[in-house]
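Progress against Task 2.4 (sequence-to-structure conversion) is shown through the following example record, which the project officer requested during the mid-term review.
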Amino acid sequence: MVEQIWNGVDIAQRAERLFEKRVLKVIAPGGRKRGSIRIVFTDETIIATRRDSLEETKAEAHILEQLTKHTTSCAGFLAMDGDVMFQTDVGQHRLGQYIRLQDVSDWEDVAVNSVRSLFDVHVAGNASTLPQDLKSCFLSSRWIKMFVNDPARVAKKLGQPIPEYDMDALAEIVKTPERRFIKWDCRAGNAATDETGKIRWFDFEYAGLRHGAEDFAWLVADENWPLQADTMVSIIKQEYGRGEDRSWESYRSYLEVFATLQAINRILQVFRGVKRKGWISEQRALHYDDVGINPRLAIHLCENGRILADRNTVTRPIVPVFEAARRAFAETMN
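Structure tokens generated for the chain above:
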């Protein structure tokens, strides 16, 4: 997270100099401490982005440059000015907001388009120089140990017995040595729609190389995403295949295992968020791209986690943890 606060006057002057157009206003929908803000010209809007370091900002700019040679399903690189990257504005409705503006009967169609757009990004990434340019991400022994230990941590916080699951087996699965492009952090808050409903992904600062299914696991296990996990897995299966030489069964199993652990990690995020600032409304979580620290959203997360955990032998012992967490969130509502 960028610590320095955006200077609206400075960024407006930079944008006017670069793009030779008058800036009407600078908007920070998520607050001026966020990594990106919106710049409003008379005829269009663009996004200014600044990461924790110049190197990270340049790296993200390179990723977007490469991706947009092959796809329109992500933000496009426009320019660099010092420590700031300018990119295209992908839309003012985050995907999590947009889907809830549609009739429930249309949710699956939105989900299909979301999955399709994310596969577009993967195919583009793997067709570019990025598999040679980037490193593997989130594969350190320390990170994997933490990730597979999360179910025990959740059980402990709930005062429940530690589940008897095979952490070593899970660790072996999570560190599968694939070198395919992934975006990472593919929550519904990190995609947006334009006036035509076109879905584009943004925030590529964590992108790197991994198995590939992690991005879909992030979306399936997003507490702010309203569809059920089994429905999402079916949609991903429907769209699977472009640029892939692995069997669907192998891909599906990895996806479900990773999504199970991701759901557990999101429950921990909810715990932390509640402790820090208490419960918030669903609307606030969606508007500010915040952790879904709302009882209804948390219950939905637990239900999806239980569905995912029950689909594979290695994660089935974790099912009681999701059930206990669901009960705890339901009691909060009562």
